Request: fold
Amino acid sequence: MIAHLPILQVIVPLMAAPVCLLLNRGRLAFQLALLAGLAAFLISILLLDQVLLAEGAISYSLGGWAPPWGIEYRVDTLNAWLLLIISGIGLVVLAYSYTSITREIDADLQVYFYVAYLLCLGALLGIAASGDIFNIFVFLEISALSSYILIALGRNRLALWASFQYLIMGTLGATFLLIGIGLLYAMTGTLNLADLAERLAGIEESRTVLTAYVFLTVGVFLKLAVFPLHLWLPNAYTWAPSVVSAFLAATATKTALYLFIRFTYSVFGFEYSFTALPMQTILVTLGLIGVFAASLTAIVQENVKRMFAYSSVAQIGYLILGIGIANATGLAGTLLHIFNHALMKGALFLALGAVMYRLGDVCFKDLAGLGRQMPLTMAALVIGGLSLIGVPMTAGFISKWYFVSAALEQGWWTLAMAILLGSLLAAVYVWRLVEAGYFRESEHGKLEVSEAPLTLLAPMWILVIANIYFGLDTRLPISVSEFTAASLMEKLAGPAP
Reply:
């Protein structure tokens, strides 16, 4: 059984999806989905433990066909780390979902939610685990199609428009990716990532290879919602059900970023990626513009979900910026922020889901006085917001520290100051939450608003506590992030320290 963990990681949620459809009952579908999510999370823990102790990556050949002829699942510290994040967030959101969707998704559609959710979860895990570039594309499309369904399940009619907008942008991204994959296959005759890396080494000067790299990068950036290719994201996060917003914000964009890191460092190689094109200038510029433009836009939003959606675009800017700094500290900061941002955004959107459960809306006027009526939910919003800013003793502080340190290593004092200024902009819109919740009179009149039920509070506070815990005890995320960054940049192989 242990030898088959890489394929079980993907198959368990994918196989559970049609079973949920056959059950055709909301509670049974929820229980099966939760069991599948728990199994996926436990498998990811075992895989990460194996990779950290093993001599190099774990290779799993499907159907007995050895790579590169057959499809290979290849797990190293980079994708094992991502598998843990995706499955962990997926499990917490599933535990939260049963109560939340009763208010946000029609009863006759709730079974379809679990079917689409499991398909999306399994596909995201497949993207991370697969060592075959076309197999990655297939999983990417499965995750995209199921995401369109999940977003469209929202009761507001604008959810359909948001889903359609995402479909158009997602299709464009998929087209760019497929063209890039086709060009690489035409030049190398292989789809295996490791084999691609070896065969590209002798033809790096080819214009076709450069064109493939550009197509792949643009396709991934569309999926990642890098500014200014982010137009689908604010509407998708705003009008989707809260559980969907939490899951996609914490996992989907991180998976797209993983693909960019994998292509840039493992397939094309760091030297080629940063010399064939002015990638350092491109990434730093796009990252900084994304941080400031999205943060300034977030400040003026009246819908809190929309505010945090633009905040996600800003945080994607930080992730791109860490790669663009082009040193091991910056890359480690990005890998660390993938984990930390999943914790903070998951907590924030789940907290907003609790507000939505009680009030039916999440505008600032609805949050007035909520600190006294829903103290645990408002406290979760504030702590998640503090982590988003990067306040010490929260997980977000560790990421920002790495980004600033990476900039200073390069002697870029101006960039370090810009990163700190971006955090101050985050403080502005987080303060709006604090002001509304604790310093305004309730606009609900005599209506008594009670705290969210325990089934919503418990998963939410798991992520809130994780934001604090991993801001104090940083051994696991830092050791994995630093070792992975060093391996990618220096091509090291061996057990983690």
